[in-house]
Amino acid sequence: MNSHKLLEGKKGIIFGALNDASIAWKVAELCHAEGAQIVLTNAPVAARVGQTAELAEKLGAPLIYADVTKMEDLENLIQESTNALGGKLDFVLHSVGMSLNVRKKNPYTDLNYEYMHTSFDISAMSFHRLMQSLWKLDAMNEWGSILGLSYIAAQRVFPDYSEMADAKSLLESFARSFGYHFGKAKKVRVNTISQSPTKTTAGSGVGGFDAFFNYADKMSPLGNANGEDCANYCVSLFSDYTRMVTMQNLFHDGGFSFTGISSDLMESFSDEAMNK
Ligand SMILES: NC(=O)c1ccc[n+]([C@@H]2O[C@H](COP(=O)([O-])OP(=O)(O)OC[C@H]3O[C@@H](n4cnc5c(N)ncnc54)[C@H](O)[C@@H]3O)[C@@H](O)[C@H]2O)c1
Q1: Which of 7, 61, 156, 234 has the fewest CB within 10 Å, making it most exposed?
Q2: Can you give the pTM of this predicted structure?
């Protein structure tokens, strides 16, 4: 890995590195290589089903489990992290998402509202809860950076993405609304990155993921952005080179979001191809 020491002297918390396919896993590795001191966190259940502890050992990073639906877990995480890192935080990555209705394959027209409540709680409200905890504990340094990960289904309909589309809309809205307050009072920026489909545990859980992935890859002039590309973008947003970027949803998708149709797809829709 070619390091530029962009995060030298910076301290941060990274949520959501479950296994080496996780976007957060790549971000953690790159933040470490770029000179940051990090704390890793994940849901307590990840201790059983994930490999977060392996990554923590490899990077020499403290691992503090926290369920993002529990305020007391987040407060404890922030307090323990600032103690372990010896000061306030410069960056936080929220890389957390889960939908029970998607997992149970419930159609969008027949969703279970208990499940929806939990999905929104884990995937969106947790972002507000995290920011409120950071705010109340005054845990962010000035010119710090808070990031969440989103998907374009927040703006356009991708039927199989189901209630996660609505969760992502809420997540992006929290970035704007809290971003205002964090910017005004503490000079901290808040953004979401809207990432290409990426082959991870959460990504692959969405029905028809291979079609999402291949369609986006053919549609995007640069092809899909992968997890390593996303880590590069996250590091740039944690670095001092992006200090005035805030309250944005930033598309990181190889050009997918602004492409009407690509030449690759045109070919498959010619009369000749359609009549084959
Ligand atoms: N993979 C994609 O195609 C894609 C595309 C755009 C955005 N995203 C977003 O990227 C983020 C990371 O997902 P990923 O694709 O790397 O998958 P992933 O499955 O590796 O990561 C999801 C993480 O959320 C954690 N999590 C779930 N419930 C939690 C809870 N209650 N408390 C704490 N942590 C909890 C999981 O343990 C896991 O580490 C998510 O917000 C996802 O929606 C993914």
Answers
A1: 156
A2: 0.98
